[in-house]
Design brief:
The complex is a heterodimer of chains A (268) and B (332). In chain A, 37% of the residues lie in helices and 25% in strands. Chain A is an alpha/beta fold and 268 residues long. Chain A has one domain: P-loop containing nucleotide triphosphate hydrolases (Rossmann fold, 3-Layer(aba) Sandwich), CATH 3.40.50. A six-stranded mixed beta sheet of chain A has the order 6-7-8-3-9-10, sandwiched between helices. Chain A has a four-stranded antiparallel beta sheet with strand order 2-1-4-5, with helices on one face. Chain B has 332 residues and is of the alpha/beta class. Chain B has one domain: 3-Layer(aba) Sandwich (Rossmann fold), CATH 3.40.50. Helix content of chain B is 32%, strand content 25%. Chain B contains twelve helices and twelve strands. In chain B, the strands form two sheets. In chain B, strands 6-7-8-3-9-10-12-11 form an eight-stranded mixed beta sheet, with helices on both faces. A four-stranded antiparallel beta sheet of chain B has the order 2-1-4-5, with helices on one face. The interface between A and B is large, with 49 and 49 residues. The complex binds adenosine-5'-triphosphate (2 copies) and magnesium ion (2 copies). One adenosine-5'-triphosphate sits at the interface of chains B and A.
Chain lengths: 268, 332
Amino acid sequence: MSRLVVENLTKVFSLGFFSRRYIKAVNNISFDIKEGEIVSLVGESGSGKTTTAKMILRLIPPTSGRILFEGKDIWKDIKSQEALRDFRRKVHAVFQDPFASYNPFYPVERTLWQAVNLLEKSPSNKKEALELIKESLVRVGIDPKDILGKYPHQISGGQKQRVMIARCWILKPLLIIADEPTSMVDASSRGGIIQLLEELREEQGTSIMFITHDLGLAYYVSDNIFVMKDGEIVERGHPDKVVLEPTHEYSKLLVGSIPKLYRKLEGL
Amino acid sequence: MKNREILFKMENVKAYYKLEEVTVKAVDDVSLEIFEDEVIGIVGESGSGKTTLSNVISMNIMKPLTLVEGKVFLKINGEFEEISSMSREEVKKKFWGKEITIVPQAAMNALMPTIKMSKYIEHLAQSHGIDKNELLSKAEKRFEEVGLDPLWLKRYPFELSGGMKQRAVIAIATILNPVLLIVDEPTSALDVVNQKIFLKVLMQMKKMGIVKSIVFITHDIATVRQIADRMVVMYAGKIAEISPIEEIVQKPLHPYTQGLLNSVLTPEPEIRKRGITTIPGAPPNLVNPPSGCRFHPRCSYAMDICKEKVPPLKEIEKNRKVACFLYMEERK
Ligand SMILES: Nc1ncnc2c1ncn2[C@@H]1O[C@H](COP(=O)(O)OP(=O)(O)OP(=O)(O)O)[C@@H](O)[C@H]1O
Ligand SMILES: Nc1ncnc2c1ncn2[C@@H]1O[C@H](COP(=O)(O)OP(=O)(O)OP(=O)(O)O)[C@@H](O)[C@H]1O
Ligand SMILES: [Mg+2]
Ligand SMILES: [Mg+2]
């Protein structure tokens, strides 16, 4: 069964009071994500990836089209606070900018306490909750000693990003939307984080939507790739097809921009 | 590699964050030379000390960061000046912008959204005692050179896309034609299309002689590989290996470099074949780093000596330096 179905999704932003301008950030896209499937939404800046993610996360309403999660229309069928809480538990975001996701005035683990409080069955006491937090940190390769009690400016960007992913081990959501989870993480932990998300998928059947501009990364992690340009999906399919034999001009441009290890890019 | 003139050198530098209760040994006994007319790439995991090193190179040292030991020299008009003996203020006043310029990590996000780009130029003109209009017309030209409409100077940063913002930042940072340009993770927040454009702009600046040498800091080895002449690999506050780029990619010496290269994921047949591998464990805490070689707890080749002694950075092949006992006599 499809865990998420996106049908003819469109988002138009209108700007300005006097002379209105309209931006079609997302233009009539359709796709689905199955249980335990990893898909990547790939495209350059401004192509509409985050806007798509925000609609799926129920943060901004679509202009038209439908989003079905577990068979329910998330913009029509979620009516009570309880239903919304349930949705927030099941669909989880790992945000693009690790710097923006933290409040500078609170220790970094606050974001993990928030995750614990969102749990359906919260731990019965503080000690148990702390254990859960520590466990989640170890899962993402962080020694709890290194970050507990620290403030955002005291830890590195890579650590911040990993803490965001630790949340997923506490909440164990059904769908993770990871908006560029690896852009700030160094190459060496990149593979580790992918493996970690794959572990989540293996253990929990979690579905994952990666949002990235890095077709190289998408190549290794996805069951399915959607290439987005100017709000539309211009090419889709198996990674081997999309990355090794792209047909759309834009996919070719993206593939041609990926820095390689054993080859030099043309035109530098 | 041809014999090159040295533009910058640092010797046995220790730069620590001295906090109330602990000391973070972020740059620990690092020696490094930067040649004229080269692009040097500095790579390493998050927290390995890359940004700290960039601040040492430009002598941008502010509490709690403290230069504990070592010397830093910059060649000015053919003579080495010991900039580490000057105060930050003095270095800033005398050399920043003209001799040495740093574009900090996440600089493009630090632009004030409500300040026009041209204001930054006016500030610069003022602090360097240059005629405002002269510098503004220079900025217009520079904007064109980096592929931006000069009209953008009169706009606000929030109106620019990420790629454009980063190009605007580099245009402004290089307006006084600095000899040495340091860029800290300039591409990590850009999409691949804009990354490539940015790299092109950077190389163009070097070709045109706007800047002479570039220190390019990133965690993305594939990016460094595209533009650098040499690569410096940092691990836990120390240099593990320095080598010409082609050689290090083909034959990494340090086990850590090998691990880093093996964790690169680019769509290439060589990489598809070897699959995803990662370095076991995590980088150490720099308050209490491991004894001996800091990489030994994660190294599959670790020997007894690695736990006891710190491997010095030694030239073991022409132009190739490595800090690893696997390549040294002491191992026996
Ligand atoms: N709240 C908003 N109001 C007006 N326009 C918006 C808003 N959010 C996004 N846009 C516009 O919609 C388009 C798509 O933006 P979006 O953030 O979805 O792109 P993206 O693919 O995520 O880009 P990036 O890779 O830079 O994150 C852009 O032109 C953007 O300027
Ligand atoms: N202001 C500070 N106070 C205390 N410790 C700091 C400070 N800034 C950095 N550190 C510590 O110094 C070490 C090196 O940090 P640095 O920022 O130089 O690493 P980096 O290689 O640039 O990492 P990244 O790839 O995440 O940018 C880390 O352990 C970091 O936590
Ligand atoms: Mg986005
Ligand atoms: Mg840094």
